[in-house]
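User: Predict the structure for this protein chain, please.
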Amino acid sequence: MHLNKSVLLFLITLYAVSPARAQYKEPEKKDKIEAIYPQVPFDSLQAKQKLAKGTSTIKGIAFTKAKSKWGLKVGQRIYANQIKVTLFPVTPYLESWYALRKEKENLRKRRYVYLSKDAYRYRLEAITNSDGEFTFPDMKPGKYFLQGFLGYTHNGTYNEYTGSGYNNYGGQTDYYQQKSYSVDYEDRIEAFVEVNQDGEIVKIKLN
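Assistant: Here is the predicted structure, written as structure tokens:
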């Protein structure tokens, strides 16, 4: 069967404007994520034993400080209001993860260091109050790693240049208009803490 030129042209045009479909699609570079995991074996029995109930207590306060335009934390305290604080037992696997994160992780390049699903299962969680206070009761002596993510918005003003003109004295005057801005941040706040003996109350600052 032969197609006339108009039908053939229609089919070619339809194919050209139709969205590309295939079994596999290469993601854009900006969407690619490099996931890195520790190579140290995870011992679930060890982690479970470290999280067994004890008689000690970890009490803390979680906060951060507002960042300057240079990225330095120099502002007033921002207390963690109703955020989740996660506690992990410190094991060789977690120590490897932490060291690897310091060495390899690069958020700008979308390179992240993750805990395995098995390691992430062995954790405790607490929710802060409006003053950033949190408590982990019934803890055994041992070393733990605490982590939270605290989001906040920094508001400020700046002077935007709007133009120049000549003044009555023959000189030039620059004109500015004050404008407001808002910047959203999310700080990862974390700390290591050690319980040395049964019945101890350990106080920490998570910032």
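Residues 5-17 form the longest helix (13 residues).
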